[in-house]
Design goal:
three-stranded antiparallel sheet
Length: about 170
């Protein structure tokens, strides 16, 4: 009976960390395939999530866990909200500090004062189709309406105009 209760608890924690309502929904989703290919994500959701204590969730939906029984630098981890397109760039500064042992203040229990210049953490577009493409880049969808090089053309002097009194032609004659 203890084994069944432990299995049920493990399954509930796995479903919670994967944002799924049932095992069927988990196994039939693309997320499950991604977890099998990406060993780190599968390990964090299927194995470590049941061992750790859910500490909190940030405004991006990322879930943070801690396991004090694990070795020192392996105690804290994150399960990203978007399993298909996860990136460490969407971890907020206060959670980054907690994950990397810069401080021991859990953002759910401590009010961090944000500087005026601080912005919310969002996923970086680096390596995706939405990355910034400067003018002239091959992948920029806008056609170039400019030339990289234009030859200088001297201004045309009209032949009908008589030379002025101070020009070089009147002095030499």
């Amino acid at each position: 009976m203890d084994i069944i209760k432990g299995m049920k608890s493990h399954i509930q924690k796995v479903l919670f960390s994967a944002n799924k309502k049932s095992l069927r929904e988990l196994f039939t989703s693309w997320d499950f395939g991604k977890m099998n290919v990406d060993g780190n994500m599968g390990h964090n959701i299927l194995v470590r999530a049941s061992d750790g204590e859910h500490v909190g969730t940030d405004y991006n939906g990322n879930k943070y866990y801690e396991d004090n029984a694990a070795m020192y630098t392996r105690k804290r981890w994150v399960v990203y909200a978007d399993i298909q397109n996860y990136s460490p760039t969407n971890v907020p500064a206060e959670w980054h500090g907690w994950l990397n042992y810069i401080n021991d203040f859990k953002p759910t229990e401590h009010d961090f004062k944000m500087p005026k210049y601080a912005v919310q953490a969002i996923t970086s577009n680096t390596g995706s189709a939405d990355v910034y493409q400067p003018k002239g880049a091959w992948n920029n969808p806008q056609r170039r309406s400019w030339k990289k090089y234009e030859a200088w053309v001297p201004p045309q002097v009209s032949a009908a105009a008589p030379p002025s009194a101070g020009s070089a032609s009147s002095i030499s004659s």
